[in-house]
What we know:
Blueprint (H helix, E strand, L loop, with lengths): L7 E7 L6 H11 L5 E8 L5 H10 L4 E6 L5 H9 L6 E5 L9 H12 L3 E6 L8 H18 L10 E5 H7 L10 H11 L4 E6 L14 H17 L2 H5 L3 H25 L6 H10 L6 H31 L18
Parallel strand pairs: 1-2, 1-4, 2-3, 5-7
Antiparallel strand pairs: 4-6, 5-6
Helix pairs in contact: 1-2, 5-8, 6-7, 10-12
Amino acid sequence: MPETPPELSVIMPAFNEGQHIRANILRVCESLAGMHYQIIVVDDGSSDNTFAESQCVADAGKPVRVVKNETNLGKGASLFHGFKFASGQFVAFLDSDLEIAPENLLTLIKVMRETDADVVAGVKDLQANQFPLMRRLMSRGYRLMVSALFGLSITDTQTGIKLFRREVLADAIPRVSARRFAFDIELLVAASRFGYRIVERPVEISYHRRGGLGRVNLAQLFNMTADTLAIFYRASFWHWLNPGLRAQIWMAMFVLGIFLSGVGFAKLLTPTIPQGFAKQFFYIVLLQFIPSPLRDWLILLIGFLFIVFSLLQLNRIVMNAFGRLDRDGLSGITRKSTKR
């Protein structure tokens, strides 16, 4: 008889975790005792004994499979590679350093069953004292940017524990291009565009990284921001429309024209001397109480913000109305009419 597929597949990416990977895998096994599960460890091109230590657990009879990337490809690429070997009804992503306790997996499964969600994302509590101030500020700023760009229904996309129904990953992974820094966002955006339901669940973090930003350095922060903006473009109306150079030039001229017209209109009204209520109104609206050089820069900033936020909102409206299947990537996804 064919072997019954496991209920849960846990994918653990690992890079140079040889000192404690064996103990961490055993802890995951212990936390899942009583379930029919499998653990897939993906050694992401480690230079230490991560692969050998992980294989020892598999050789001891635990339901563990160890696969290896010959070179370091990144966390996202490792998780997606591990999914090729996953056969569970539910598929979980779990960081191998176990800053997030594996016992949270049982909680996420419970939440998924109770809410009939398709994705349950663990979210960290930034109020917790173990997070340095700089790390909290960085996380809050990044959350605000993600919310503004994508409008996802969860507050945190980067916590290293997530649970998916198998079909979500089967649909979403082929649409994902990011493999390193911001793959979580692109994966969740794809799942959302397919119409899958995403909920979140707070999880406790055992934070033990050194430095104000932990393991995140400035280069990684820059790369994550660049990846996030690239994902926004791939998921946007502009990528779906795929305008040619001529159309792009005309769009840029249109925006520039709006801006110049606005500045010109403000300059035109500035020297006028209205009376009564109109005088007070224009005194406030045209910021005439601010010194002229500062006022000009402030008007420039306000105009720029108006353009940016208007384009963000227009992108959401247009993509919701005109999603179609004749292009690859996130911008061509339409919602599913039925699920499961």
